[in-house]
Amino acid sequence: MKTKSVFSIFLLSAVLLAFSVQTAGAQYPERPINLLVGFAAGGSMDLSARALAASAEKVLGQPIIIENKPGGTGMVALAAMLAQKPDGYTLCATPSSVIIRVSQIQKAPFKPFTSFRPIIGFTEPQLGIVVKSDAPWKTLKDLVSYAQKNPNKLKYGTTGIGSTTHAAVDEIAAKHKLRMIHIPYKGSMEALTALLGGHIDFASLTSELIPPVKSGQSRLLAVISENRSPLFSDIPTLKELGYDFANDAVFAVVAPANIPADVAKKLEDAFAVATKSKEYLDSLDKIGMIPVYYDGNKFSEFLRTYWGKINKHLTATGIIKEAATAPE
Amino acid sequence: METLNSLFYGLSVALELPNLALIFGGCLMGTLIGVLPGIGPVGAISILLPLTFQLPPTGAIIMLAGIYTGAMYGGSTTSILINVPGEAASVVTCLDGYQMARQGQAGAALGIAVFGSFLAGTIGLIGLQMIAEPLSFLALKFGPPEYFAIILLGFTFIIYLAQQSVIKAAIMALTGLLLSMIGLDPITSQPRMTFGVINLFEGLHVAPLAIGLFGLAEVLDNLEKAAPKKILKVKIKSLFPRKTHWLQAKWAILRGTAIGFFMGTLPGGGPVLSSFISYGVEKRVSKNPEKFGHGAVEGVAAPESANNAAASTSFIPLLTLGIPPNVVLAVLFGAFLIHGITPGPLLIKEHPEVFWGIIGSMYVGNVILLILNLPLIPLWVQVLKIPDKILYPLIILLCVIGAYSINNNVFDILIMIIFGLSGYLLKKFAYEPAPLILAFVLGPMFEVNLRRSLLMSQGSFSIFLERPVALAALVFFFIMVGLPIYRFIRKK
Question: CA B300, CA B293: separation in Å to the nearest integer?
Answer without folding.
Answer: 10
